[in-house]
Amino acid sequence: MFNEAGVEYNVLCTVNSANWNKGKQVYNNIKQMGARFIQFIPVVAYHKGKPLGFTVPEKGFGTFLTDVFKEWVEGDIGFMFVMNFESAMSSHANGYPLICFHNKECGSPFVIESNGAVYSCDHYVEDKYQLGNIAQTTFSEAATSQKHQSFLSLRSTKYCQKCEFLSVCNGGCPKHTKPDGSNHLCQSYKTFFKNTQNTMKYIVNNLL
Ligand code: SF4
Ligand code: SF4
User: Three-state DSSP class for 48?
Assistant: First the structure.
């Protein structure tokens, strides 16, 4: 319907235990639908120290993105826009990724629920990160609140200091932290950055 009406739209596709090894197929299916803007979001959830069944395997997100990248780079540069690649290219170009996972710090993408409750982030809609209610709390008060400062302190690169990809990865989302303190997607990020960085830098330096 959007295609017929000439309306552009973005497809948000999760990467999980069922599709992590089908990157090429998933990407081409979305492309055939007529979509040109895509973002891939990893599904990671732990319960009692163990990943839940639908969680993408630790290396799976990297495998998926690398497979999609191979397809994209062959003929879709400038035609298909994959947010994950746009973000990595932005990191290589100017040090500012588009994905908050790879920012130096978590920011203030506040969430407001239908009842007015304000939270630090949509990954942390939990009582201890409720910053107030929009009916009584200003954004300035929310941003400077103690609860929001505790949320910001969740971000850690303690296990990343010797990593060659630290400047483009910055440790990932704290919601994906494993019980040992490392990031569930660390191996995926290493795989993705290792397999794509030379081509990304070439695109940034020669094609943009
Ligand atoms: S907690 Fe995760 S999703 Fe939220 S701002 Fe930080 S990196 Fe982004
Ligand atoms: S790839 Fe792993 S070790 Fe390197 S910065 Fe990212 S999360 Fe840290």
Answer: coil
The first and second tokens of residue 193, run together, are 């950055």
Q: Please report how the helices 83-94 and 186-206 are oriented relative to each other, as an axis angle in degrees rounded to 10.
A: 70
The ligand 1 site (C-beta within 6 Å) comprises 100-101, 106-107, 109, 121, 123, 173-175
- What's the pTM value of the predicted model, to 2 decimals? 0.93
Query: Using one digit for the tens of pLDDT, what is the confidence trace for 17-41?
Result: 999 999 999 999 999 999 999 999 9
Token pair listed for 180: 């040992």
Given strand 10-15, what is the order of strands in its sheet? 10-15, 37-42, 81-82
Q: What number does the ligand 2 atom closest to the CA of 162 have?
A: 3
The C-alpha atoms of residue 150 and residue 203 are separated, in whole angstroms, by 39
Read off the tokens for 160: 């990343």
Mutate to test the pocket of ligand 1, among 100, 131, 151 (most ligand atoms within 8 A of CB): 100
